[in-house]
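Please, structure for the following, as tokens.
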Amino acid sequence: MGETSSLLPEWKATADEIWAVLRETDRIIKDSSKESAQRQKEIDRRFQEIAEQQKETDRRFQETDQIIKKLSKETAQRHKETERIIQELSKETAEQHKETERIIQNISKELGGVSNRLGEVAQCFFGSELWKHFEGFEYEFQQLYPYLPLFDEHNKPLGDIDITLLNGEYAMAIEVKTHLKKKNVEYHAKRMEQIQQYPPAQYQGRKALAGLAALMVDRDAKDLADELGMYVIEQSGEAVRLAPRPGWFKACEW
């Protein structure tokens, strides 16, 4: 033991050295405390800045929330107002549509009445002693039937034959129009096929002929009537005449 202790260096500090060490240690501790205090102060300052920023952020969020609520309320009010306007417009449109339909129906009714009256005028104009206009030609008729009904095999009405002229051998079905058009000639050709298929009593045992009478006659309608072998009776001044026919004309018999 004595030998081992003698090998360690022997150190003896003086009082001045000890005080010097203590003073240095105290200085170091004070400097460290001062630096720590400054750092803590800086940390506190930054925390305060963050708190202020958070406070400002919260304030802005609140303002934004108020703005959003205000806009939502305004949007809801505008949407409600828009729906009200649309409902009013829909109601007005429906009323206008209804009124328009009523006007159209009235006009159609009036025009239908005018058309019927014109048809009646045409019937009277051509119906009176119509057979006389064929005197001197290849046919002479003695009887006239207005509005002769036409039925199929099931007794279903197919319409009326405006005027029928009769003699012992022939029956002429005449379609009367105020204005004769090509489509009217085509329609009458189909009507003649129906007469051929379902002949009324007056046509049975007789050869059927076709005629068209009109106050006004389109050129293409007259041409088609000639091709189909139909007679055309037209207005000429204040009288009625059998329209001129081309030399190749041949009356069709159904």
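The first strand starts at residue 143 and ends at 151. Confidence is low (pLDDT under 50) at residues 110-119.
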